[in-house]
Amino acid sequence: MEFAELSPCWQRVFTLAWESVCMGSRAIAAVIADDAGHILSEGRNRTGERTVPNPKTAHAENEAVAALDTQRFPDLHSYTLYAGLEPCVMCMGTCVMGGIRRFVIAAPDSFGGAMGLLKMHPFLAAKQISVEWADPVLGDIQRGMQAIRELLQQKDEARLNEILTSFSERNPKGVAAARALVGSGMLAARACSDFTAEQIVNALLEVRG
């Protein structure tokens, strides 16, 4: 598999995720699309950017829901949110209250993922929300991008190991590919913005095998 073979929705998710890395934020992004796959809105993590008044809430899914023009696109229940990473409690709630009823997610998140709550709370269960887990390769790309970000930016070695161990629970191949890519020195001499998302994804997939 290569970047060019991904659907336009996933290409955009990973393009935005890499943009977040280049801006100092986390490698997480999401898009909302209609049944034909046309992207209606998008959002990326901006938690590391000082231009955001409250960066703690600048999560990808929140941004995508807030950017959806409901006057132009009122058929909310028919749209799908494509998320690189399983949404947290805040983002899951925003999506549900924002009318999203279908999720397609690349990587599960055993630390902060909240999709399991959909069946536990009567209000959420009544919404009959559909959750689909994407091809595991996409999860490896997602966690690989996140691992690259941490390997490049996290200075606390103990914290880094803790984070990468968490990422590896479900996507060890993606994390191993990221370690190999950063270890090769490919990203050491150049800025993140010198590389496109396509280059990074293809490099991860090549190393992953």
Protein model, in words:
A hairpin with a 5-residue loop joins strand 1 and strand 2. This protein has a five-stranded mixed β-sheet. The protein contains eight helices and five strands, in the order αββαβαβαβαααα. By secondary structure, it is of the alpha/beta class. Helix content is 43%, strand content 13%.
Strand content: 5-15%
**What is the chain-wise order of helices and strands?**
HEEHEHEHEHHHH
User: Structural class, from helix and strand content?
Assistant: alpha/beta
**Which shape, going by the Cα principal axes?**
globular
Tell me how many strands there are.
5
Mean pLDDT over all positions:
96
Fraction of helical residues: 40-55%
Number of helices: 8
Kindly report how far apart the N and C termini lie: 9 Å
Low-confidence stretches: none
Please compute the radius of gyration using only Cα atoms: 17 Å
For the biggest β-sheet, the strand order reads: 2-1-3-4-5
Main beta sheet: 5 strands, mixed
Give me the secondary-structure topology.
Elements: H1 8-22, E1 29-33, E2 39-44, H2 60-67, E3 80-85, H3 89-97, E4 102-107, H4 122-125, E5 130-133, H5 136-153, H6 157-168, H7 172-183, H8 197-208
Parallel strand pairs: 3-4, 4-5
Antiparallel strand pairs: 1-2, 1-3
